[in-house]
Every structure is written in C-alpha cells, then in structure tokens.
Design goal:
The chain has about 140 residues and is α+β, with helices and mostly antiparallel strands. It has 3 helices and 6 strands, in the order ααββαββββ. The protein has helices at about 15-20, 25-30, 60-75; strands at about 30-35, 40-45, 85-95, 105-115, 115-125, 130-144. The model has no long low-confidence stretch (mean pLDDT about 95).
C-alpha cells in the first residue's frame, strides 16, 4: 500500500479477508472480497437464488448484508485489532434499482474515521455500473 493508505496494516490481502469469511453468512451468500485500495474495500455478491426475494430481484436484506460486511471489515482494518474491535451501531440503505442477474459490486469508503466511531458509505452497483443501492453504516470502535 502507498503512504496515503488508511489501513492500519499494509500487508492485508483479499485472500486473507475471504478466509476470515469462510463458513459465515458472507460465504453462504457468495460474497467475496475482491480489492483493497488505499482508501476503499470492494467486494461482490451474486444475483442468484441465494440472494433473491420471491420476485426474482436481489433482496434488500442481502444488499444490507453486503454493505455491512464491507463497512464492518473496513472499519476493523483501520484500527489496531490487538487493542480495538469495531461493531455496527446503525445501518441504512436506499434500494434504487432491482438486480435480476449477474452480480453486484459494493465499494466501501470511510466518510469519517474518529477515535471511537466511524461512518462508512457503501455504493452497490450492478454489472453495468449502475447504482443499485447506497448504504451508510456507523461503527463503534471498542477497546478490548
């Protein structure tokens, strides 16, 4: 990572993040972390039977799961995890476009990183790059 990186550790890679998610809701929904940039975390989720609501579109709860997974993991990666852990306090989502096939890609970026709280914005797009959902999560940084 470059000097401008927000991450506490500079050696985290997506393979490590995906390993953390084995046998969790993330892996059951097919969520995969795909990229770590200097100030963002990106992941995908399939638009398929695991993530659909009864009318053949991605379920809003699945979008929120992707958003929370990205925002929560991002929040934990900016703190010293030997001393702190971050937990969600509030999440909201605006579902803007139904996705019926392919996959969605979420990109989480911090809006605010403070000593005891963080706010992250997660933009979820379809395969054509169209905004499908926008979410914001507030995280608490708790001393271990």
């Amino acid at each position: 990572m470059s000097k401008e990186s927000i991450w506490f550790r500079d050696d985290v890679d997506v393979a490590e993040l995906n390993k953390l998610s084995e046998n969790t809701m993330d892996s059951n929904l097919g969520i995969e972390f795909t990229e770590i940039g200097p100030d963002f975390l990106r992941g995908t989720m399939p638009a398929d039977h695991r993530t659909f609501q009864p009318f053949g579109r991605i379920h809003g709860g699945a979008n929120v799961t992707l958003a929370e997974s990205l925002g929560s993991l991002g929040a934990n990666l900016v703190v010293d995890m030997d001393k702190y852990f971050c937990v969600g306090q509030e999440i909201n989502a605006n579902h803007l476009r139904g996705v019926m096939k392919g996959k969605v890609t979420g990109t989480a970026r911090p809006v605010y990183i403070g000593r005891t709280s963080q706010v992250w914005e997660i933009r979820i797009e379809d395969d054509r790059g169209r905004l499908s959902c926008i979410s914001r999560i507030t995280m608490a940084a708790v001393r271990k």
